[in-house]
Design brief:
The complex is a heterodimer of chains A (113) and B (109). Chain A is mostly beta strands and 113 residues long. Chain A is 0% helix and 49% strand. In chain A, the strands form two sheets. In chain A, strands 2, 4, 5, 6, 9, 10 and 11 form a seven-stranded mixed β-sheet that branches. A four-stranded antiparallel β-sheet of chain A has the order 1-3-8-7, with no helix packed on it. The model of chain A has no long low-confidence stretch (mean pLDDT 94). The termini of chain B are far apart. Chain B is an all-beta fold. In chain B, strands 2, 4, 5, 9, 10 and 11 form a six-stranded mixed β-sheet that branches. The chains are: A mainly beta (113), B mainly beta (109). Chains A and B meet through β5 and β10 of A and β4, β5, β9 and β10 of B.
Chain lengths: 113, 109
């Protein structure tokens, strides 16, 4: 069974440029999460989806971040425009049921110059 | 920060020794989970303990949970060099999962 797939693994951009990350969760997992992980810290939730509905986006900086999960399967996280402080690893995870174990992708490491 | 706390922040031990990591959380929980993260990789689930359980074992892992103190501990017995990684606890209340800041474990061979 394929795990959670994320792309790209690495991205380097200039500040003020847009960037997008893609995630394909494990088949059949209705719950999808996007986490932000700064160096030396634990993951912090950006947004959680139940199927195609964003049920917790309270920590998503909506002025520059957006996310979508069309058809309740794969998801895209976008930052526009990127700032220096957005340099971090963006992790995608999926689970079923919602309070069970999470399966993580390898992450997308963003460097903003 | 909404993150839970873990201690120690870093731990260095010799191969064969036991490693103990502690986690404190802030709200009532349904369960508490422990994850491992190798450098540059995603997190991998290790073990889940429910709020009505006090201790759980899985291979060389032993997890305890004290809901009255809002704390948990992870014990890795007979550590190996391959156990070198960061370890995170995650408290689950409702459908909200909150990670701690993690413990960096280094096992020297």
């Amino acid at each position: 069974e394929a795990g959670v797939v994320q792309s790209p693994r690495y991205k380097i951009i200039e500040k003020k440029q847009p960037v997008a990350f893609w995630c394909n969760p494990i088949s059949g997992h209705n719950t999808l999460y996007w986490y932000l992980q700064n160096l030396g810290q634990g993951p912090e939730l950006l947004i959680r989806y139940e199927n195609e509905e964003a049920v917790d986006d309270s920590q998503l900086p909506k002025d520059r971040f957006s996310a979508e999960r069309l058809k309740g399967v794969d998801s895209t996280l976008k930052i526009q425009p990127a700032e220096l402080g957005d340099s971090a690893v963006y992790l995608c995870a999926s689970s079923t049921p919602p309070s069970g174990e999470l399966f993580f992708g390898e992450g997308s490491r963003l460097t903003v110059l | 920060s909404q993150q839970g706390e873990e201690d120690p922040q870093a731990l260095s031990i010799q191969e064969g020794e036991n490693a103990t990591m502690n986690c404190s959380y802030k709200t009532s929980i349904n369960n508490l989970q422990w994850y491992r993260q190798n450098s540059g990789r995603g997190l991998v689930h290790l073990i889940l303990i429910r709020s009505n359980e006090r201790e759980k074992h899985s291979g060389r892992l032993r997890v305890t949970l004290d809901t009255s103190k809002k704390s948990s501990s992870l014990l890795i017995t007979a550590s190996r060099a391959a156990d070198t990684a960061s370890y995170f606890c995650a408290s689950v209340g409702g459908n909200k999962l909150v990670f701690g800041a993690g413990t960096i474990l280094r096992v020297k061979s």
